[in-house]
């Protein structure tokens, strides 16, 4: 959780209205610099795909991972290169819909294949296409079961025992194998990391194939709670570097090492600013209702995720005085629209300064999987996004209008 500039929060809330997302560019640059020892940092843009964030990434030498046709078009719009000579964009998926297949072939974008059918369909459409194999090593790990992307419960990647069949398809269709990729989930800890590194080395050796690169996937966690564990990126790198060196020694040539984080690069840069609009006591629970809901920030409702919360008075000063156990909730017509809850939907009061109508409530560390997971539920327009860069405050996405939503149906 980054310190708050209360005056700036109040100014942004007044200028752009609430709810509003803000991102601090300096924090993103700082996180990028912490991973500079990797040969390639590939931003998993699903975490935050605003074109201005993507441009900032590109300017810092970061490449990008896209997982849909829309994300590919965002990357192209942000200036990432395409074509035979480029690896700026890698498309990662478990299937290729027809429109995306046509576009990756047209743009000659590397494809990280998570199913045998992707290899077949790509090979039929474009022999020689550059591919990665996304391997499910047989185990996974996540901050929630919903973000665990390895093991038998996961639809992701090619099951490790089926890699020989995938390699046979690569031969059959004359595809060019660039490398192997493993992403076992979000919120990986060091013990799992060691297992993944060992599995990667074993996979490369067993495959009997020459490859140029390996990808460590993403999954680096951030300290959502004050005092929470901060990842030691040098240590993280050293584990992967050792795996890479073992593979390089086995293959007899240098091997390129990629990392593919989403959350680590952007989560801490972001805040969601909301306004207190109502309060009520419901039996023993004290509810404070703000103008943002799970249509904006879905993580608490979806995973029981914890975000630190600050309360500011209308002038931006920190709310002092008494605190009380508070259930922070939104405007949606659904009981699960609560920001203070545990996985499974148990409403959990948080000790917060006593809120007044008109206070600003800030939800911290919402730069990853915040705006990118928003929806139009209850016909609520997507909210504005603002970037703070070198003291300058710039709107990087305007608020959607209800008229724009209705127009789709006319
Ligand atoms: N690479 C692949 C192939 C992925 O599937 C993901 C995330 C990443 C990289 C980036 O993972 P990260 O470094 O951000 O953990 N909505 C959830 C997270 C879902 C992640 C899905 N895949 C959340 O809000 O926590």
From TrEMBL:
Residues 37-267 form the Orn/DAP/Arg decarboxylase 2 N-terminal domain. Substrate binds at residues 263, 299, 303, 334, 369. Its EC number is 4.1.1.20. PROSITE patterns: ODR_DC_2_1, ODR_DC_2_2. Specifically catalyzes the decarboxylation of meso-diaminopimelate (meso-DAP) to L-lysine. This is Diaminopimelate decarboxylase. It catalyses: meso-2,6-diaminopimelate + H(+) = L-lysine + CO2. Pyridoxal 5'-phosphate binds at residues 219, 260-263, 369. The keyword Amino-acid biosynthesis applies. InterPro entries: Ala_racemase/Decarboxylase_C, DAP_deCOOHase_LysA, De-COase2_CS, De-COase2_N, De-COase2_pyr-phos_BS, Orn/DAP/Arg_de-COase, PLP-binding_barrel. The active site is at residue 333. Pathway: Amino-acid biosynthesis; L-lysine biosynthesis via DAP pathway; L-lysine from DL-2,6-diaminopimelate: step 1/1. The gene is lysA. Its cofactor is pyridoxal 5'-phosphate. GO terms for molecular function: diaminopimelate decarboxylase activity; pyridoxal phosphate binding. Signal peptide: none annotated. Keywords: Amino-acid biosynthesis, Decarboxylase, Lyase, Lysine biosynthesis, Pyridoxal phosphate. One of its GO terms (biological process) is lysine biosynthetic process via diaminopimelate. Homodimer. The modification N6-(pyridoxal phosphate)lysine is found at residue 46. Gene3D superfamilies: Alanine racemase, Lyase, Ornithine Decarboxylase, Chain A, domain 1. Belongs to the Orn/Lys/Arg decarboxylase class-II family. LysA subfamily. It is an enzyme of class 4 (lyase).
């Amino acid at each position: 959780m980054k310190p708050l500039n209360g005056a700036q929060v109040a100014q942004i809330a007044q200028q752009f209205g609430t709810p509003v997302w803000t991102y601090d560019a300096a924090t993103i640059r700082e996180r990028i610099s912490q991973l500079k020892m990797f040969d390639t940092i590939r931003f998993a843009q699903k975490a935050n795909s605003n074109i201005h964030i993507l441009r900032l990434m590109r300017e810092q030498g970061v490449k990008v991972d896209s997982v849909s046709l829309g994300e590919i078009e965002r990357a192209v719009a942000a200036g990432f290169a395409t074509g035979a000579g480029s690896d700026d964009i890698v498309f990662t998926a478990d299937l290729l819909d027809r429109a995306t297949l046509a576009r990756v072939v047209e743009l000659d974008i590397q494809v990280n294949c998570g199913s045998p059918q992707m290899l077949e369909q790509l090979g039929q459409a474009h022999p020689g296409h550059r591919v990665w194999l996304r391997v499910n090593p047989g185990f996974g790990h996540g901050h929630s079961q919903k973000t665990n992307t390895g093991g038998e419960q996961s639809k992701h990647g090619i099951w490790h025992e089926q890699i020989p069949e995938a390699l046979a398809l690569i031969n059959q269709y004359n595809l060019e194998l660039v490398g192997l990729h493993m992403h076992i989930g979000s919120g990986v800890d060091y013990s799992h990391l060691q297992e993944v590194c060992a599995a990667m080395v074993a996979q490369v050796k067993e495959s009997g194939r020459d490859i140029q690169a390996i990808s460590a996937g993403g999954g680096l966690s951030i300290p959502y709670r004050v005092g929470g564990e901060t990842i030691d990126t040098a240590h993280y790198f050293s584990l992967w570097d050792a795996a890479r060196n073992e593979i390089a020694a086995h293959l007899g040539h240098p091997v390129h090492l990629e990392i593919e984080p989403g959350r680590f690069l952007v989560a801490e840069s972001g805040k969601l600013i909301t306004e207190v609009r109502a309060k009520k006591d419901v039996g023993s629970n004290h509810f404070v209702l703000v103008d943002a809901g799970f249509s904006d920030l879905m993580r608490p409702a979806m995973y029981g995720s914890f975000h630190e919360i600050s309360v500011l008075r209308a002038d931006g000063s920190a709310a002092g005085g008494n605190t009380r156990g508070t259930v922070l909730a939104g405007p949606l017509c659904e009981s699960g629209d609560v920001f203070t809850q545990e996985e499974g939907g148990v409403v959990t009061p948080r000790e917060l300064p006593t809120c007044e109508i008109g206070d600003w409530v800030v939800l911290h560390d919402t730069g990853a999987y915040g705006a990118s997971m928003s929806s139009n539920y209850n016909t609520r327009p997507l909210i504005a996004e603002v970037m703070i860069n070198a003291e300058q405050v710039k709107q990087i996405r305007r608020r959607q209008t209800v008229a724009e939503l209705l127009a789709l149906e006319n």
